[in-house]
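Hi R.,

Here's the chain you asked about this morning:
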Amino acid sequence: MPPFYDGDMTDQRRLVLASASPARLGLLRQAGFAPEVIVSGVDEDALSAPTPAELALVLARAKAAAVAERAEAAGALVIGCDSVLELDGEALGKPADAEEATARWKAMRGRSGVLQTGHSVIDTASGRTASATASTVVRFGEPTDAEVAAYVASGEPLHVAGAFTLDGRSAPFVESIEGDHGNVIGLSLPLLRRLLGELDVSVTELWV
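And the predicted structure, written out as tokens:
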């Protein structure tokens, strides 16, 4: 039987987030979880896949696996995530510099892309894994050149996949989304619930 949380933290399954993303950590905390953070250190540039959706999943699996192998993650449920923006069939991650971020926004404005986020959950106690990719359509507005320049100067787009985020300064430049907004921020809580369910773990067991 899965462990039952009766108020004693020693009886509760540990949840580990294999990501340095403050946005993902914030989403989990807002949903009632208290994950530990262990950064994977995976070289994202060394991995590839045929499609953006598959790439997001490959990266998520690699991050979760790298952390699950560590002694400090023993017995924990490890969550790995990675996001890329699919535009014109290409996978766009974090821009390398301000120039790339500016070009990216000029290419995105007035158009739609698909934010692909790979999710991988590993139960280190059993060795079982559940993985999937969540997709959300994002329709961008048409910020002016001056607005793009100001946004790039803020530094924010250099730290987020696709050079934008819904929980920051670029939110006014996103007209609408079709799908889970959390997925665009970095983690789909409904998908996480389903993946945990595949591992016979209920999200309510992990609330604090």
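The mean pLDDT is 94.

Let me know if you need anything else.
M.
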